[in-house]
Structure formats: C-alpha cells, structure tokens
Amino acid sequence: MKYLLSLCSILVMSLSVNAGTITLLSDDPKDLELFYKDGQHDIASDSYRLLFENLENVKFELKIAPTARIDALLKQDKTICAVNRIKTEERELYNLYSYPVHLYPSHRLYYFKDRTPLLDSMITKDGELSSLLSLFNQYPNASIASEAGRSYGKVLDSQLAKLNPENVLSRAGSDAYEAMIKLFQRHRVDFLISYPTIFKQYYSENNSDIASVAVAKHPHFIAGHIACSSTPRSKQIIEKINQTLIDLYPNSAFLALHLHHVPNSEHDLVTRRISDLFLKYKLSSK
Known about the structure:
Blueprint: H1 2-9, E1 21-26, H2 31-34, H3 43-54, E2 59-64, H4 67-73, E3 80-85, H5 89-92, E4 95-97, E5 102-105, E6 108-112, H6 132-138, E7 144-147, H7 154-161, E8 168-171, H8 176-185, E9 191-194, H9 196-202, E10 210-213, E11 221-229, H10 232-248, H11 252-261, H12 267-284
Helix pairs in contact: 3-11
C-alpha cells in the first residue's frame, strides 16, 4: 500500500518522448488497490500486477475515469494508456495495442430460468444462443443491461445495436460492472451480458434460478490489452510491454493466475490458449 500511496501522489510529468511517468487509465476504482495489493483477486488485476513487477523502465500513474472519457483521451496526441481494453478494428485506427495481458473467459448471457427460459429454437447445435435478436423476438418486452461506451466485441456490439433501444438499459460510470449485476439481481432487467468471473465476484445471493449461455460466433475468450494513444512515446511503451509479455507467457506464474480464477472445466482450454499466445507472438516478434 505504501507503493500505491506514493504512486498516486506523483504529479503527471511532461508527456514528451523523454517523459518518465505515464498516465494509465482504468474504469474500475477497485484497480487503485488491487493492482498493487498482494494476493489473488481477479485475472485482470493479478495479471497487471505481474506485468508491472517485471516491466522495467516504464513508470505508470494509475487513474480512474469512465469508459467514454477513456475513449476520448486515447484519441488525443498526448501519451496516455489504459488497461483492460478490447481490441476492435475501429479502436485500432487511433490506438496502439499491446499483446494480450490476460485472457478472460468470454461474455455469457445471464437469464432467469423461470421468468425467461430459453427455447430449443433459440439454441444452436453447439448449445449456444443463436443471437440476441432471437431472444427478443420471443421476449419483446424484456430488457437487457448494457454498459454505455464499452465494446463487447464485434459480434455482440453488432447484435446490441440491432435491438430496440427501449429494450436496452444502458449504464455508465466507474461502477458499471457491479451496478448492472445489481440491476439484474433486483429484476430491474431480465438479461445481462457479463464475464463469468465478474458475475461470480458481484452476485452474492442464491443463484439457483439463474443460468447462462454463450452467444454463437462470439469468441470463447476475450483478450485484455493495454492500449495507448498513438504517439512515438506510446510506441516505445508498447514495445517494452510486449517484450515483457513474451517472457511471461511461458512463466508458470502467468498460467497459475489464470487457472485460479476459472472453472476446472476450462483449465485445459486456458492452458492451450496461453501456449498459443506464446507461439504466435514469439514468432511475430522475430
């Protein structure tokens, strides 16, 4: 915590190519503590803590901002970075991205089995929801929680955009993860898209009436990256981060922190995906 306090007290230095401290943004206030607190907390904070412990010659000052504000700041010509960013084609137009810092079991659709059961006609042969449109064709008066300004990936973003706006309850703010789960918990919305690890973290009541399902064509894992505004200094930072990640991918600590937070049924798949990361980016870095 002493390191955290000293870090948060540092004034932002000149953001030129030769600058020292770089602003690092997050939309989750808990990161101010979890990124620098020993122990096992979640995949994101554990992986960033491991990265920072091994990252040399780059100093970050962590600050909290809403997702929409982060989007705007990353488009500026000052060197600013952000954590937990999902790479999209649109964002790549104005941001530089690191290699994946962590892999998250991907979004699932959560629903109440008694109130809004899924029909066989909505489910693919692989046991996935065919689309959000098929869901709302069956439940036209239902609602789904969505975080304003956040990308859920190409497939889900496209499907959410096609829903009737009256069916989508958007929530902005630094506490959006927890707030949306509470809306779902209180039956203020009928459906929720969330990461399994996040849902487990914030949903504390008996969930025997709750089920979840993957959405067809949406990736099973989401990669979390550090993204920076497009500047020469940012390019140097991303290169240093990538060099460190290449060393971390085959490290047992990197694999262990992922396996700790995912169900046993996902362990083999997570192990293979992390091995694939190392092979892919090791080859591309040569």
